[in-house]
Amino acid sequence: MNRLEFMKLLALKDYPSLSILLPTHRCSPDNLQDPIRVKNSVSEATKRLVGEFGELGAAEVIKRLNAIVEQIDSRTTLDGLAIFVNKQVSKKYYLPFTLTERVVIGESFAIRDLLFAMNRSPRYLVLVLSEKPTRLYDGYRDSLVEVEECGFPFTQEDNGGITRAGIDASAYRDDRHRQFFREVDKALGEVLKQDPLPLIVVGVERYLAFFDEVSANKAHLAGTLHGSHDSTTPSELVKLIWPIVQDHFRVKRESTLDQLSNAIGQKKYAAGFDEVWKVASEGRIEKLLVEEDFYVGVTPEVSGINPKPVENSTIPGVHDDAVDQIIEKVLHTGGLVTFYNPGKLSNHSHLAAILRY
Q1: Of 97, 119, 141, which marks where a domain is finished?
Q2: Residue ranges in the chain modelled with pLDDT below 50
Q3: N or C: which end of the chain has fewer CB within 10 A?
Q4: Cβ distance 329 to 237 under 8 Å?
Q5: SS3 of residue 156 by DSSP
């Protein structure tokens, strides 16, 4: 699961597109109720589809829905479950953040809540180096979700220790390790193109040295964890990783504040909702700084140009959060986003930007 994949789903228009969003539970006995919730939501979705399109017209989407639901394992769910089905695709995601329970049928999938949660959470990648296998995890705060795309997990084939006569076995083994980790790094590069996140690399000294030698992705490196963790569970691994991640983001926040001070002197600076919205729309933001709890509601009919904030974002016809729209604009144009504790940016109206020009 990554932001680019969600953006592709968001852009996919096909009526009907069915979205089922549910809160779930990680542990027993709470997760015993999850299959019942899924069943009830599927029943509601089926009833609505048949009611609008008839049994024949809804048959293909319902068939895809039932097939994807059969793949759900309540023993491995996290805090939220998202199911997206139409005539073109069928996807399910276990998510490390809770969701409001709802069933949505429309021309596109209900992705924005998920993107919002992803945008507001510290995210990172964890690469666990091993021969059998090398795994990649998507990190969200103190949770890890395994990435199963771009070839991951990777397993190095066993050659049985056979080498040709006259070839040093140790050198041959080292060359095989280098080639293996080159393949891993190439796949990692594809993931980072989709979602350029900070990277934590885990492994024994030997594997870390090989990876450092061959990697083209070291610019993303945020830290390393030394040791063999082939059998460490994600829940145990993240306890070791999270302090490293927290330290990385702390240093990043402090550095970005220093850069903001320099940007003010160079007049490459914007602050406050109105100014930041304008430069975000122009694609000028290199780095966006925003307080974690800062939200701005705007009316949809004026949200494209010079939106006017609305204090009560719960009234009908008001977008929940225009700051989230700014974040999307910045990420879409290759900018970076850094979050701060409430009040940290009070001198900048809670929202500031370092500009490219």
Answers
A1: 119
A2: 160-163, 165-166, 301-303, 313-314, 316-319
A3: C
A4: no
A5: coil
